[in-house]
Design a protein that fits this description.
By secondary structure, the protein is an all-beta fold. The protein has a domain of about 80 residues. About 0% of the residues lie in helices and about 60% in strands. It is built from no helices and 12 strands. The strands form 3 sheets. Strands 4, 5, 6, 7, 8 and 12 form a 6-stranded antiparallel beta sheet that branches. Strands 1-2-3 form a 3-stranded antiparallel beta sheet, with no helix packed on it. A hairpin with a 2-residue loop joins β2 and β3.
């Protein structure tokens, strides 16, 4: 499957990482910024990516996993991670896993959920 998404550099957090805007099939996703952590799953059908809910240095990081179904134009957003980043997205044997990293606390948490439990899909443009 051809790459159907594109990241554009949008800025940097003070003393922190860069963030990006995301386009899917030529349409910019409004309201959110994205980290560079991402993975294409199921031969490129899905894009799992770190979605940022703020770029405010004092409030953040506040992130979550966004999973885009590039074939059907849908997105599912997982639970918010306060004061942490998400990365290392994998889908194997029906289990989606990812890492939550709380840099200020020096803590890393590995998370797993059954892929079939992700049911809150909505149109990308909603």
């Amino acid at each position: 499957m051809d790459r159907k998404y594109h990241l554009d550099y949008a800025g940097e957090i003070r003393f922190g990482p860069a963030y990006y805007s995301l386009e899917i099939q030529g349409v910019k996703i409004p309201k959110y910024n994205y980290g560079f952590s991402r993975a294409e799953l199921e031969d490129g059908r899905y894009l799992a990516i770190e979605e940022w809910l703020t770029t405010d240095y004092q409030k953040g990081p506040i992130t979550r996993v966004a999973i885009y179904d590039l074939k059907n134009g849908l997105v599912s957003r997982l639970k918010t991670v306060d004061k942490g980043f998400v990365s290392n997205f994998k889908l194997k044997n029906g289990v989606f896993s990812y890492r939550k990293e709380f840099v200020a606390k020096g803590k890393v948490v590995e998370s797993e959920l059954d892929w079939s439990s992700i049911t809150n899909w909505e149109p990308i443009n909603s």
